[in-house]
C-alpha cells in the first residue's frame, strides 16, 4: 500500500508542539523521532498529520480527524487499507448529516477510526424522517486541539495527547482526551481515551474503535483469532456463513459485508483479537480493556481490492445497532455531570510467526 509522498505534505521545519518535541527529535539514544505537517492537495488539503517513528514502526496520527491513526508502517509492511475514498479526507468535505444517514462513509479511510461519542452505530431517524444520529457518530470528523507531547528519555516512552470536543449548546458537551503512547524500539501503540461529560446534567455516550486492515496483510487464507466461542451473525446473510466467520477469502467483486458480534472472554480484565496473515508470518493484535469495552465486532468486507477489501476488528461499549435499540438493551454508558469513562487498548504489530503465536498464547486466543 502506498503512503502519500512527502511532496503532498508540508512538514514543519521547526516542531512547535512544545519544547519537549525538540528533545525527542534529537534524542539519539532513545531512537525515536517525531515530525508534524499538513497535507497540501486534494481532499486531504489542510489535514494535520503527526508522524512518530520508534525505530521499529512509524505511526501516522491525524489530529484533524479526531486523533485517528491513518497508517502504521513496519519496514516494508504497511497496516491500513485501500479505501475507495483515497484519503485522508478533510472533515469539511464529509457530509456527516446527509439525509441518507451514511455520509460518514465519504471520509472512511483510517487504520483506526473512533465511532462516537453520542452514538456509534447505525443511523437513526425520528418519526418524521429527520436524521437524529448519523452513521458511527461525529467524533472522527472533529479536529483535536491542545496537542501535547511528553517524552521520558530513560524509558524511551513518548506520549502524544489531544482533546476533541463534541458539543452543542443546550444538548451536549462531551470531551475526548486521547493519549497515544509508543516506546523506542517497540512495535506497540497504546491508546488511552478519557471521555468526560462537561455538562451540569447527566449524559449518555458510546464508543467503538473501528480498526481496519487490508492488503498486503489481508489475503485469501488470513484469519481472525479471538478469546471466545460466543459469535453471532448480525443478519441472516452473516449467520449463514457462521462456520467460516473468521476465515478470509479472496477479493470478490460485489461481495457484501458480513458482520459478527462477539462476547469476548477476558483474562485479568483484558481480551484480544488477532488478524494473522495466510502464512502466519505477520499479524495485527488488538488488546482491549473489557471493563469499559465489553463487546467486540468483526467486520468482513472481502470485496474487490479497489472497492475496499478489508477486515475490521472493533472493540466497543455496545453493539453497532441504532442507539435507541442499544439504550433499550442497557448497552449505553451513562455519565454524571463531570463524570469520566476511560477506554484502553493497544495495537501490536507482529512481524514473525514467533510474535504471532506469542501474542495468541499471551491472550489465550483460539
From TrEMBL:
Top-level taxonomic group: Bacteria
Database matches in InterPro entries: DUF4432, GH-type_carb-bd
Signal sequence segment: none
GO molecular function, one term: carbohydrate binding
Protein name, per record: DUF4432 domain-containing protein
Amino acid at each position: 500500500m502506498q503512503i502519500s509522498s512527502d511532496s503532498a505534505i508540508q512538514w514543519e521545519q521547526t516542531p512547535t508542539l512544545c519544547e519537549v518535541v525538540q528533545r525527542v527529535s534529537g534524542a539519539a539514544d532513545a531512537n525515536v523521532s517525531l515530525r508534524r505537517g499538513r497535507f497540501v492537495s486534494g481532499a486531504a488539503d489542510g489535514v494535520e498529520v503527526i508522524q512518530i517513528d520508534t525505530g521499529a514502526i512509524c505511526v501516522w496520527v491525524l489530529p484533524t480527524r479526531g486523533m485517528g491513526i491513518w497508517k502504521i508502517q513496519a519496514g516494508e509492511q504497511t497496516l491500513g487499507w485501500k479505501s475507495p475514498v483515497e484519503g485522508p479526507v478533510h472533515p469539511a468535505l464529509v457530509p456527516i448529516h446527509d439525509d441518507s444517514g451514511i455520509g460518514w462513509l465519504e471520509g472512511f479511510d483510517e487504520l483506526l477510526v473512533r465511532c462516537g461519542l453520542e452514538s456509534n452505530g447505525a443511523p437513526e431517524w425520528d418519526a418524521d424522517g429527520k436524521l437524529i444520529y448519523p452513521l458511527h457518530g461525529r467524533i472522527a470528523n472533529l479536529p483535536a486541539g491542545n496537542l501535547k507531547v511528553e517524552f521520558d528519555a530513560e524509558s524511551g516512552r513518548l506520549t502524544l495527547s489531544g482533546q476533541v470536543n463534541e458539543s452543542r449548546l443546550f444538548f451536549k458537551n462531551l470531551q475526548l482526551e486521547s493519549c497515544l503512547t509508543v516506546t523506542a524500539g517497540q512495535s506497540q501503540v497504546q491508546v488511552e481515551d478519557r471521555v468526560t461529560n462537561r455538562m451540569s446534567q447527566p449524559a449518555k455516550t458510546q464508543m467503538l474503535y473501528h480498526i481496519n486492515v487490508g492488503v498486503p496483510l489481508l489475503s485469501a487464507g488470513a484469519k481472525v483469532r479471538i478469546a471466545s466461542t460466543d459469535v453471532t451473525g448480525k443478519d441472516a446473510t452473516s449467520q449463514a456463513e457462521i462456520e467460516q466467520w473468521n476465515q478470509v477469502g479472496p477479493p470478490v467483486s460485489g461481495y457484501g459485508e458480513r458482520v459478527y458480534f462477539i462476547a469476548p472472554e477476558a483474562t485479568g480484565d483484558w481480551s484480544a483479537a488477532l488478524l494473522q496473515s495466510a502464512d502466519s508470518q505477520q499479524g495485527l493484535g488488538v488488546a482491549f480493556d473489557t471493563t469499559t469495552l465489553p463487546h467486540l465486532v468483526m467486520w468482513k468486507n472481502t470485496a474487490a481490492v479497489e472497492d475496499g477489501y478489508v477486515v475490521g476488528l472493533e472493540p466497543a461499549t455496545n453493539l453497532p445497532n441504532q442507539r435507541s435499540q442499544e439504550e433499550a438493551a442497557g448497552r449505553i454508558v451513562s455519565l454524571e455531570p463531570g463524570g469520566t469513562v476511560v477506554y484502553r487498548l493497544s495495537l501490536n504489530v507482529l512481524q514473525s510467526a514467533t510474535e504471532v503465536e506469542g501474542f495468541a498464547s499471551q491472550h489465550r486466543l483460539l
